[in-house]
Every structure is written in structure tokens, then in C-alpha cells.
Amino acid sequence: MKTEENQQKLLFPKNGKNPDEIYKLLDDAGDADANWRNGKTFSLVFYGGDELSKVSQKAFMKYYYENGLNPTVFPSLMRFENEVVAMSADLMNGDSDVVGNMTSGGTESILCAVKAAKYYALNKNPDIKPEIVVAQSIHPAFDKAAHYFGIKINHIPVRKDKRADVKAMEAAINKNTILIVGSAPSYPHGVIDPIEELAAIAKKHNILMHVDACVGGYMLPWVERLGYAIPKFDFRVDGVTSMSMDLHKYGYTAKGASCVLYRNSEIRKNQYFVYSGWNGGIYASPSIAGTRPGGTIAAAWAVVNYLGEDGYMRIAKEVMESAEKIKKAVDAMDGIYVISNPEMSLLAIGSNDIDMIELGDELQFKGWYIDKQQNPSSLHLTLSQGNLAIVDEFLADLKEALAKAKKFSLNKIATKAASGFAKGAAKVLSEDAMSKLTTMLQKAGGKGLPKRSAPMYGLMGSLPNKGDVDDLILNMLDGLNKLD
Questions:
Q1: Across the chain, what does the average pLDDT equal?
Q2: Phi, psi for 375 (deg, rounded to 5)
Q3: The whole model's pTM is what?
Q4: 411-469, pLDDT tens digit by residue?
Q5: How far is CA 17 from the centre of its chain?
Q6: Closest Cα partner for 349 from 387, 385, 377, 388?
Q7: How does pLDDT run across 265-306, given as a tens digit for each residue?
Q8: 3-state secondary structure at position 163
């Protein structure tokens, strides 16, 4: 039960604060955040430098209050959006029939593409029960889309090289399949799925094919032009019917900005929502969002025009040189390696005998933010312009952290004990009792995130039911999204 003092903290402020006080509170609040400005954050942030940031921020602030919901009120935003979409389509080798829209990010682009696929299929066959076929490595935004839109999603295990298994995906296609998906590249391991083969089976079965290039869309074209071996993944491939690509990643524009592209207007129209019966007038929305922030649209337009091909090529060259340096250094270290052979600047570091989550914890204590992955256990790096100055420092810290991770420690005992406890409990407790135990363990851990994640990953990996893990994460997420 909350005390009266705690409840008082939740009340709406009676009096406003002066700007200096607000700025101070903002600065103080960010003290615990990842310091991406020092280059040690290998995820979430794509920083293109001070000068580029000034261009982006000025464009954003110029359109800070404008709303892209109604194009007749702010035609400049409509022009910016159409030009960004056209330039993005050109980058993806689309012809004059390719159309699209800007969205708030990769997830919204994917939601739009899945929605369009669903209604495109239903308009042709109202009796269909929509299903989509994806590789296990696909971004969870497709699972979110399937959850939101009532679509069955079929996950197919990837090949040994972590790429989509084309034969297995084709075997999963049935009369209700409306869409198959490939990644360019997939996020977990940075590898490009065999898009041409997937597109061929999509065309063979007369279904749509989406390429998730949210990460690679604004990087792979430049990497290919630099002479790296990049398989075709865009609208050059017959059978590719839609694509998603994020400007706020390797496009280095303000968040959130993405593009969803379609082979033609016939497919895209199924993305739109129109309602003409409202008392307030006719309502038409091209994407999931209603209000569409003008600042992100203007900033995207400004940054793309500021950098141009020469600017993006320069950045891509520097990033790829650093990515190759990291790959070679990691593969030369005893006990760890780069998983598969990623085509661009995303990579996963794995091991056959090192606890990768514990290695990630050691790097975290040194100030690095690196994504920790599972199945297989690995560390994920997204290398971009903002990380280039600290590559040597990272490799030195990685080597030191690796040495620590190899040594005997109490932390390793704790991790194994948590895993062993969960496995042992699963053998003697009923499913209901195990679920209750999972909830108790989560509550015992407190509300905040643990300093070391290895024991938590060990525990979750040992739980027998996926529902137990989901409940554990849901409870943690629910606790984090509440005031103290």
C-alpha cells in the first residue's frame, strides 16, 4: 500500500517551474542513461556528427508544431514526404510505379506492410484465414503485427549460417499464406536472407513478399557501391512486393522516421484507412498514426539532401572499414568468434565455451552498452558513425573482459545455481506451481533491472514453459513502467 507521502509525488504539479529548473531536472534525470556521446553504445543511437545534427535539429524545430495528418493544410510536409519516399525508392532500385509513405519507425512500417498484405489477400479471397511465413530470425515487429491484426505467424528455423531456410519456408506455405518475409539483413546476426530465392517461391505461389531492410536500407546500397559482395535484395528482384527501410538508423535522421515502399499503388491502397461517416468530416489516414509530427519528416528530408550520395558513401566507407577491423580482431581472439559472415556493419559475437552474457556484463561494467542475445547466446554490435572513434578502445576492453570471463568466479556459480535450481524445480513441481514460483522469483528480484544479467538469462533459459518466461518479462516490464 502506498503511503500518503508516496501518493503526494503522483499528484499533478500545482505550480509551474522556471525553465532553468526544468533544464537542471532534465540533466539530472539523464545521469543514469547510457552515454551514447562517448561512442560506447552499440545500439539504439545512430549519430552522424555535430554538423549533421545541427542540420537535422534546425529542420526539426522549423516544423516543430506542424502536423502531417492533413496534407492540404501543410503541403510542404506532403512534398517533403513524397520526395523522401521517391529518393528511398530510387535507392532501392524501384521504377516509377513504386510508391510508399513515411512512418514513425520500422515497427510502424512493418505493421503497415502486414496490414496491406492482409487486406490485399482478403479483397481477392474473403474466405482466407491469413497466415505469414517468416524465419526465426525475423524482427518481432512481425509478431506484433500478427498479434494486432489476428494473423497466424509461422516461424521457420534458420540454416546453420543463420539465413532463412528457403525450402523449409516454402514447405510451410499453404492456401492461407498471404505473405513471406526476408531480412536484409536480419538484426540478430547481420546476415542477408536469400531474397532472390524467397521472392521466386513467393511468385510461384502467387503471394506477396516483403523485405525487411529497416536496418540495411540506408546502408547496403552504399556498401555494394564500395565493392563489397552484396546479394540483390531490393526491387531489382522480381517477386519483391514491399520493403521497409529506416531513415533514423543508417540514414542518420531524427527519430522516428522510416519508409514503407510498395511495388505499386494496388498493394499500397490496402494500407490506408478511410472513414467517411464521421460527424467531424471525412477521415483518411495513410499509416497507423493519426497525428504525424512534421519535425521528423522535415528533418529526414533535410538530412538526405545534406548528405547526398557522396556523404553517405563517405560514412559507409569509414563504418565498413571499422566493422572489418572488429571482425578480424574478434576472430583472432581465443574462445570467441563472429557468427556466420555478416555482409555489413551488424555482427554477433559467439563462443562455444565462454558465457557470452557474463562477457557482456564485464563489458557493461566498463561502460559499454551491447545487446545480449539468445539461441545461441551472443553479443550484438551495431556499428555506426558515432562508434568509429572508440573501436581500438573497445577491442582492448573486449580482450580484458574475455580474460575475466574465462576465470573462475562467484558470479559463475550464481548463474549455474539459478539455472540448476530452475531445472530441478521443474522436475518436481506442477506446471501451476512452477508458474507461481516464477512470479515469486521475479518479485524477489525487485523492480529494477539487475546489475548482472547472466543469472537472469540462465534462469530464463532453464524455465520449461515459454509462458513462464513471458510472464516473467511482462511482470518486470509492468513494474518498470510505474513510478517508484
A1: 87
A2: 55, 60
A3: 0.85
A4: 554 555 445 545 554 455 455 554 555 555 555 444 444 555 555 545 455 455 556 55
A5: 36
A6: 377
A7: 999 999 999 989 999 988 888 899 988 999 999 999 999 999
A8: coil
Closest CA to 325 of 270, 393, 267, 279: 393
How far apart are alpha carbons 192 and 199 in whole angstroms? 13
CB 138, CB 300: distance < 8 Å = no
344 contacts 216 by C-beta, under 8 angstroms = yes
CA neighbor of 367 nearest in space, from 335, 396, 337:
396
Supply 360's cell numbers. 557482456
Percentages (nearest 5) of helix, strand, coil residues in the chain: 50, 15, 40
Q: Please give the Cα distance from 135 to 58 (Å, whole number).
A: 41
Helices 294-332 and 75-91, packing angle to 10 deg:
30
Q: Within a 10 A sphere around the Cβ of 363, how many other Cβ atoms? A: 24
Which tens digits make up the pLDDT trace of 180-237? 999 999 999 999 999 999 999 999 999 999 999 999 999 999 999 999 999 999 999 9
**CA gap 146, 141 in Å, rounded:** 9
Find out whether 261 and 85 touch, Cβ atoms under 8 Å: yes
Helix residue ranges, H only, 291-355: 294-332
Q: What is the pLDDT of residue 450?
A: 53
Long-range Cβ pairs for the range 54-59 (8 Å, 24+): 55/302, 55/303, 55/306, 56/252, 56/253, 56/254, 56/299, 56/302, 56/303, 57/254, 57/299, 58/302, 59/295, 59/298, 59/299, 59/301, 59/302, 59/303
pLDDT at 228: 96
Tally of residues, the chain: 484
Cα-Cα-Cα-Cα dihedral of 471, 477, 479, 483, to 10°? Answer: -160
- The rounded distance, in Å, linking the Cα atoms of 85 and 99 is 7
Q: Quick one: cell of 113?
A: 506492410
